[in-house]
Specification:
Layout (H helix, E strand, L loop, with lengths): L4 E6 L11 H10 L12 H11 L1 E9 L5 H9 L4 E6 L6 H14 L2 E6 L17 H10 L3 E4 L18 H6 L5 E4 L6 H10 L3 E4 L10 H8 L6 E2 L9 H9 L5 H16 L7 H6 L7 H7 L5 H17 L2 H6 L5 H4 L28
Length: 365
Amino acid sequence: MPRKVIDCLLNVHFGEADSQPKWMTSVRDNYFKGPKSMFDPVDMSELLDEMDEMGVQKAILMDSIATPRLTARKFAEAHPERFSLAMGVGPLFRPMKMVRELAAITHDLPVRYAAIGPSFWGDGDYPPSHALYYPLYTKCAEMGLPLCMNTGIPGPALPGEVQNPLHLDKVCVRFPELKLCMMHGADPWWDVAIRMLLRFPNLRLMTSAWSPKRLPESLLHFMRTRGQNKVIFASDWPVLTQRRIVPEATSLELPETALDNFLFGNARSSSSATGSPSADLQTTTRGVEMDRYELRREDYSLSEDQLDLQNAYAKFFETHCTIETVHANEADGFDRACGRGSARPARRRWLFRKKPAATERRWSI
């Protein structure tokens, strides 16, 4: 009987496009030496057969906010007990729009983690420590949604230094609540990544796109000893097929417990890959069915104390200092307008200028 496996990264969307960008074909031909069929449309029954053969109970399929992956969503809808989604985010030049969309999609679809590759947007000029990422970190921490970030030099000819794991140092310090995972290994900075894993309880590493037999001995030693709950298995299928790398993984010289954690247990505890969205996410939505627009508005809703204070101010101004009174007495100053009898000149007249147009207001309560 095969071991239980959770594969935390599959790509079933390649066949949706008529052609792949040049860098993708270059990675296939020159880096992974993959077959031409790598970018063919995926047959769901054939994928399920491969999963069953290799003991893969559940698989997480890559999706994207910017370019929805229809095949991945169709598979997840057809077999929710076997498939769920990883949601790619970015670029983050205007991060709040992306963050709101992530919150809405996570409510609507079975998203297990968010993912972003720093080398793949902004010409590699924005490392994970940059402030543009902070709204994403905050929202993922609030929802209890893990965030996976590419680390290590990428296969395509893109700027690679931005994916040095050391850029996550400040992120882990500033956001200890964030469930963070280094994705696609960490070559050539494996030792840096291991040191980071030792320091930060909220950090994990995923071996997607790495043949298990090619993993460095330093990482395997870490997996045998202090890192038994830190490293997560993934294939990046069809870049590496399950038929190839599951047997390679089971042949690693790891203790039984460490091997079971690597193939199954660590994914189960880190990404909620085996069940419904995390309890933290359910707490955020307060167990109420909301459409995506209501979920976005919740970011700006007021607490009961804030609403009471808002109502008290509104009642005060309605009773003692209407806007008509203020406009009629602006020349005499704010204090006289509100009947306080002060002869002081108006110092804050700008507070009562004509109400700006809706397009000028940043937000409204």
